[in-house]
Amino acid sequence: MRYFTTDSELTTVADAIRAKGGTSSPIVFPSGFVSAIGELSNGENGLVERSVSVYENSKVSSVGNGAFMSYEGLAEVNFASCKTIGEMAFLNCYDLTSISFPVCEMIKSSAFQNCSSLATPLSFPNCTYVGSYAFCGCPSISYVSLPLCSDIGSNCFGGDIMLETAYIPECSQIPSYGFGACRSLTSVDASKCTYINRNAFRSCIALTSINAPACSYIESGAFGGCTGLTSLNFPECQGVSDFAFNLCTSLAQIDLPKCSILGSYVFQGCEALVSVNIMYSQITSISPYLFTGCSALSHISFPACTYIGNGAFQSTTSLSQVSSPDFPVCSFIGANAFNKGGLQSIEISTVTSISYAAFYGCQSLLMVSFPACTSLSTSTATTGAFHQCSSLQSVYMPSLASIPWSAFAYCSALETINFDSCTIIGSNAFFNCKGLSSVYLSNVITLESLAFLSCTALQTVEFPKVANIRSSVFAGCTSLENLSFPVCATHINSIVSAAQYPQIKSLTLGVTTILSTNTAYRSLSNLEYICLPRCGTLGSSAFRSCSALKTAILSACSTINGYAFANCTNLSSVYVLRGSVPTLNSTAFNNSPIKTSDDARIYVQSSLYADFIVAANWSAFSSKIVSYTE
Hints:
Largest sheet: 9 strands, parallel
Number of helices: 4
Shape: rod-shaped
Number of strands: 52
Strand content: 15-25%
Strand order of the largest sheet: 38-40-42-43-45-47-49-51-52
Radius of gyration: 42 Å
Distance between the termini: 125 Å
């Protein structure tokens, strides 16, 4: 059945369609009408118009706001003369499958939102504006052509529609979520677009091509999760915001030759990325997590960069080497910057500060060199800068002022270290460094507790300036044999545990007095060498029964009490280098080669030789006293 009216000009059909109310009476529009309403068919709730047509010679120029909103059964509309489609004009018309607006110039917001059956390829050759959510929730749309459209609203094609191709050559900017989650979208032509807003193409997993040569800025998340992209070229782009290309897992190459602004997480998770063309000479800082997870990236170079942000190269497993020519002016490396990456070596001569966990878990890292670095940042609440660099063998950081908590913990292959300026070694700094066998640090003053915990291969430690040693510094160092602390007044029982006493072969300590109550020294059963440069008094039985002891150097001793070296059955050399003759108890060397062997020697300063050979109790050893000149 068809219904016709012939009235004068009509500019909107909204109220008229609603006025019909599904009755069987002819439709008469209040403002007049010069077209036809197409076939009617019975709906569940009465007669429902299946199609609406407004012919070309009509005066209908717009469809009013909400005109057909939630209109059940409407399947087809054809408005040959309509130039404007109002807000929500066809909102929730779930049965609408086909539309035609050949001269339409403006589609307002939500005009066709949730028209879930709409499958017609969309072509609006004269349209210059599409409002927000205009086609959002229209999952069956496969093609959009808007050759003259310069303005598109947010979410206009969002909602996981089947759109495959978008032709919008005059569009000046792509709005936020404009094509968000269009999972079938493969190509976009936006040749005059100058700005791509946030999340514009987010999760367009089939997108392989976008033509936007005039684009000057890309906002946050614009292409996030576009897993089908393999290469991109934005020749005029000057800036890219946070997350713009994150999780573009197939993206291998991107050209941004004029870009000098890169936000955080821009290339996060771009695991295929091997080539990035940007304006390197203008980039002074690398934003946090910029290349995190770029596992194929094998080379980087930022000649103007002074700052590497947190996580910037985290998990870049193919990046094996970084050197000063790559970062000639860089002074700061942020937290997690190279965390769990594939670095084998890094050497940057200008870096002065490294933050916590910067190289955490870099298990291929063999060598680091930061000659100007003065600061490693960490705390007990964070992870050390080189924590779990299990292959690290060599560290060169001669300007570092202190080594903080856990800085090199679990660097199990570490063998060679240079920290010439270091004054403090923090707790657990070298925890479980099982390859470390020798440590010489000339300027360290303080050793915090557990600093070398479980360094099971550590044999020799020399700290000529250490004045303070906290508890259990060498706990678990089961191979420790040689200790040198010439200015440290801490006794041996506070430096190592009783279980370690039998290991000690060589000991230099800055203690000023060893009393008879300091029985720990008597348990050094394998001690071969003892040097006491500051000790004024040796108490009774101080080293009694140290049967392996061969050499004793006493540089400041004024009193040697009874049995101090008794039963030291291998003691053959004693150096008494004080500026005056010490008081000696006659039993001090009982049952030792000093008393029993003609080959034993007591070395004294040449200027005091004559005094020694006549001094009380020393005179008994006159044949063994010889002059010593350093």
